[in-house]
């Protein structure tokens, strides 16, 4: 059924279809068209003076036709984006159980600190003498990242976790080349359960990737590492805790095998938030590790632009850290941007400037407000909450490695759905109806029908109890044969279930105006 705007009506509460509204709105759930459909291409929302005559300098590449953007007034623009924001689900809306992504609460204190003058308005091209406070903050953040990880050096410039991976592996590549082994050490070992960025990063740098099979419980067997490691291996890229939510219990032995072969140990630090204050990667034999500040130290994912993925390095790699870095010269801090001014051999740069100041401020604010004991408690609470969810669902949902303690996230598979006619994707869609963003689905790939739940440390017991109760209700509905609740879900979202396969294979990436309607025939 279509409403008067020509859009499909959305089933909601009982009888909702029988009470179709003229506008398509449903009280506070307001229908919103595309911005091109509500704006006019021939007007703007503001008045511009006619430009003076000028000579184009684009060599004939300047725009010849209209720009084709919709014109809206300020109220129309505000209403459009506010209405769209009301259709979003975020951590400020409710529990966000997205495993392996750590969608936790960001304290508003950190946001306020990031907006202080001198941080919010700092410019990368300012003279160093005018940004001593910013450099001091970077130096302080670097100190605590090194202290918490037990490493020797850190580079702050990478702008995301994957960018940090690239920097860390580039440092490893530079160290291998410095030893004259660049032509022979061409292999990087990557466990089957790794984040997809790991093999992509290694391949981007020209390495050959060899998979390390996981044990039945999802962890890496050192015997497999021993079988694969040799003089052709440059490094291993291991996530710890791993993507199955488990601590790699043989990590020290794996590090020993890698180092004895002359290779390097890269640790994917995406899950560092589970062990901060409990274990230091440097003490476990790690040579390089990126840290997702948004996951471990509470900064927004992306932060409205570049994020931050600092990389900590061991003694074996510290000399190859990329430029730039902060150095104290007497009582003055300087930003070293030229390799000729250092005693070390940096491999170069990974970004034009110095990282993302807003992320640095938020992360250090989080550290200082929590203190050592608070950071440790955050890790403990993250692990406690995940195990609370595991215990609350263990009798209804199946786990690939059995009902055993996990770290900061708990992994279920689709074994409990066998014979129900319900799939992992169906469960995800039904969770939307219950007011939850689905957990991570179908990842890690080593588990069939994976459902990875990370409640984080910032959820209360009451919040977790409601989530567990909702998941138990869904599980019991699936087991008793209430398939319609799942296969047609979501029923209450602004849009019903999409044909995701078609959307992926035939994406519509550009709006085109609909053809003009044919004039109605004159009445006889």
UniProtKB/TrEMBL annotation:
The glycine cleavage system catalyzes the degradation of glycine. The P protein binds the alpha-amino group of glycine through its pyridoxal phosphate cofactor; CO(2) is released and the remaining methylamine moiety is then transferred to the lipoamide cofactor of the H protein. Residues 186-302 form the Aminotransferase class V domain. Its EC number is 1.4.4.2. Residues 378-475 form the Glycine dehydrogenase C-terminal domain. InterPro entries: Aminotrans_V_dom, GDC-P_C, GDC_P, PyrdxlP-dep_Trfase, PyrdxlP-dep_Trfase_major, PyrdxlP-dep_Trfase_small. SUPFAM superfamilies: PLP-dependent transferases. Residues 495-524 are annotated as: Disordered. Pfam families: Aminotran_5, GcvP2_C. This is glycine dehydrogenase (aminomethyl-transferring). GO terms for molecular function: glycine dehydrogenase (decarboxylating) activity. It catalyses: N(6)-[(R)-lipoyl]-L-lysyl-[glycine-cleavage complex H protein] + glycine + H(+) = N(6)-[(R)-S(8)-aminomethyldihydrolipoyl]-L-lysyl-[glycine-cleavage complex H protein] + CO2. Keywords: Oxidoreductase, Pyridoxal phosphate.
